[in-house]
Specification:
The complex is a heterodimer. Chain A is an alpha/beta fold. Chain A is built from ten helices and ten strands. In chain A, the strands form two sheets. Chain A has an eight-stranded parallel barrel with strand order 1-2-3-4-5-6-7-10, surrounded by six helices. Chain A has a two-stranded antiparallel sheet with strand order 8-9. In chain B, helix 2 packs across helix 13. Chain B folds into two domains: 149 residues, 2-Layer Sandwich (Beta Polymerase, domain 2); 184 residues, no CATH class. The chains are: A alpha/beta, B mainly alpha. The interface between A and B is medium-sized, with 17 and 19 residues.
Chain lengths: 238, 360
């Protein structure tokens, strides 16, 4: 395989170490990856992670993003927005599931750093270009985190992915990459998924950071990065 | 009523121990099959071919634990998910990835391509139920294994879906007296139909291929193909005989579900293991066991000898009467059949079921 350029690829801390961002960071560092997403996907992870932000020493990473909680049960929306200001003060993209948002005008204040993620089949919003358009109307400056696993689960032909990229490619901030299985869980990439991702890889600029969400053990990290690189390779012209 | 069938111990091992059988060829074929399945699995894992919505399923000798010299790899990509044009490319990639390791399946047969769950589950009988669909459905139940292994969602879902179709359609799962479960006649009839189809196809292939491969196909029909059929019969009979299943007859739990659960457990066994489970329970003096298992052991020994296999491969029907190898096959298959006749027509537990379900 010949790669025209090396895409920046890293991992979500939550994919590698459930509810333990320090362990996740340690695994990512051990594999010399310079792209990371700090995960507070579960609500209870948010406050401890925010409290640690200034002590994490992330200078060896070229790209850092932050994943906000995907469900709010204990914390109210306003409290979460206040906590997340610590993230945007660092100028890190803030990855948000759109179904968390109730008061759009408050989230819109994050501007371009607010990065809306497209959703899997289970969610009634944010799955297709049409559904994303409704969100971007209310969040005019927000960027896009395109979750390739989610969009492939919604449409294995990748036509929906193409449509999203055609309409919102200019908003693209980062990718989420993994296999999303029938139960909507994130798994390691398969050959079939790689074939699907190859269909849209040429539309994704080489500079866009890729965050792997595949739940793999530390010994499989390098293999997963390689599989991702192959799946999203744009072959150099002969 | 006898104790339960399909316990966790290996019934062939148990049978060999009980009757001091020397089954070296069966053990050898089993080891070869396990090794081949592992090799196939390694290829699939390396190629990242295994997903939640698809399963690589093997059939034939590799699934039956009966790999011998020259065995080919009968497999299919079973798809139980959204339609996707990439499935064809995955199938082609699997074909090329295993081509160095395994003999390719018969190009005109039912294997080496894609199989879709909806057809297997919904097209039972009727004009849409083609010969290939019937074959794949029954073999999926009686002699298949998923390369994925335990926890394989697609394969497990489809096998259960097929069993559900057969059982849900029964008016009642109980006998008339409501004292026990009955033999699932819809499934049994399809097993019988499959066996007759195989036998008719044998004649059809003889004509279509100008007699080529007659000897080996005839030997397989007499032994390994017949074994698949009798394992299907015994699996169906087990619903009426199994103690564990029938002990739950008064439970509040859904009766169809209990039968499906029982059958799901049963069809995880190889055909030879299904036969062994029945013989362990019902063959009290070991006479049938010795006839059947010694014959089958000899048969696998012949298939595992590449010269003998090749001889059978080249043997035409018109030469068979005077052919020493075929006379040997006939002796072995007669011993196998004598054992089966005794079991199905004379055994106290089995003969009434054979009479009730096996003919009309």
């Amino acid at each position: 395989m010949v790669f025209s350029k090396m895409r920046p690829i890293g991992f979500s801390t939550g994919a590698l170490a459930y509810a333990d961002f320090m362990q996740g960071l340690s695994i990512i560092r051990n594999h010399n990856l310079r792209t990371v997403e700090l995960s507070a996907l579960r609500e209870e992870e948010l406050e401890p992670l925010i409290a640690s932000l200034d002590n994490l020493e992330l200078g060896d990473f070229d790209y850092v993003s932050f994943h906000a909680p995907s469900k709010l049960k204990r914390l109210d929306e306003q409290k979460v927005i206040e906590l997340l200001q610590a993230v945007t003060r660092k100028n890190w993209p803030l990855i948000v599931h759109p179904d968390v948002i109730q008061r759009f005008e408050r989230w819109a204040e994050f501007g371009q750093l607010l990065c809306i993620e497209n959703m899997d089949k289970r969610k009634p919003i944010g799955r297709t270009a049409r559904e994303l358009a409704l969100l971007f109307e209310k969040l005019p400056n927000a960027s896009l985190c395109l979750d390739l696993g989610h969009v492939r689960q919604v449409d294995p032909t990748m036509s929906v992915a193409l449509e999203i990229l055609e309409h919102f490619g200019g908003r693209l901030c980062q990718l989420h990459v993994s296999e999303v299985n029938t139960n909507s869980q994130h798994d390691a990439l398969t050959f079939e998924t790689a074939l699907a991702f190859q269909k849209i890889s040429a539309l994704i600029p080489q500079t866009i950071p890729i965050i792997l969400e595949s739940r793999v053990t530390p010994d499989k990290v390098d293999e997963e990065v390689l599989n991702c690189r192959e799946a999203l390779s744009v072959l150099a012209a002969a | 009523m006898e104790p339960s069938l399909f316990k966790d111990l290996d019934p062939i091992d148990a049978l060999a121990t009980r009757w001091s059988l020397k089954l070296d060829e069966i053990w050898k074929a089993r080891e070869q099959a396990r090794s081949q399945r592992q090799a196939f699995k390694d290829v699939c894992e390396k190629g990242k071919f295994l997903t939640q919505d698809t399963s690589v399923v093997v059939f034939g000798s590799m699934a039956r634990d009966e790999c011998t010299s020259g065995s080919d790899a009968d497999w299919t990509l079973l798809i139980d998910g959204e339609a996707n044009s990439d499935h064809l490319r995955v199938t082609q990639k699997i074909t090329s990835s295993i081509s160095q390791i395994f003999n390719a399946p018969n190009p005109t047969g039912s294997f080496g391509g894609m199989t879709f769950s909806h057809q297997l589950i919904h097209n039972i009988g009727g004009a849409e139920d083609t010969n290939a669909n019937t074959t794949q459905r029954i073999l999926m139940l009686l002699e298949s294994r998923s390369i994925h292994g335990v926890g394989d969602a697609a394969y497990g879902r489809v096998v259960r879906g097929i069993l559900n179709r057969y059982i849900e359609q029964e008016v009642s799962n109980l006998n008339r007296e409501k004292t026990g479960y009955k033999v699932p006649r819809f499934l049994l009839n399809d097993v019988v139909r499959f066996w007759r189809t195989m036998a008719v196809d044998f004649a059809s292939k003889q004509s279509a291929r100008g007699g080529l491969g007659w000897g080996i196909r005839n030997a397989k029909l007499r032994l390994s193909r017949k074994l698949i059929y009798i394992s299907g019969l015994l699996t169906c009979f087990s619903c009426a005989l199994d103690v564990d299943l029938n002990s739950q007859i008064n439970s509040e739990r859904d009766k169809s579900l209990q039968v499906v659960n029982h059958l799901r457990k049963a069809v995880k066994n190889t055909p030879l293991a299904v036969l062994a489970s029945s013989l362990l329970l019902y063959d009290k003096d070991g006479e049938v066991t010795r006839n059947v298992f010694n014959a089958y052991n000899e048969f696998l020994g012949i298939l595992n000898d590449s010269e003998k296999r090749k001889h059978l491969q080249n043997l035409r029907a018109e030469d068979s009467e005077r052919d020493a190898m075929f006379i040997e096959i006939r002796r072995i298959s007669d011993a196998f059949q004598n054992g089966l006749d005794k079991f199905f027509f004379e055994n106290q537990n089995i003969k009434s079921l054979t009479r009730k379900y096996g003919v009309f």
